[in-house]
Amino acid sequence: MTATILLQAAGGGLMSFLPMVLIIIVFYFFMIRPQMNKAKEHKKYIETLKKGDKVVTTAGIHGRIVDLNETTLVLEVESGTKIRFDKSAVSLEASKAANGTKA
Asked: Are residues 26 and 63 in the same domain?
């Protein structure tokens, strides 16, 4: 008789953690995983940039790439003005939208 009470108590304790485990699983698949995929896609886009590409920075500056380094790029904006940016400042979604491609 006491053995069944102990098993019920252990099962009840385990069942109280089930909602927390489910919340963590849902949080991972709907929040963390898509964010990791988005970051991976942005990194791949940054690595494929080349001279002549039209891009938009996170600050909203539109320009054409005229020079590339390991970590920076030079954009030519209005009438020959050139500005140096960090590559991470290029926005994937805004650049694809400005170029008319699907983000």
From this structure: no
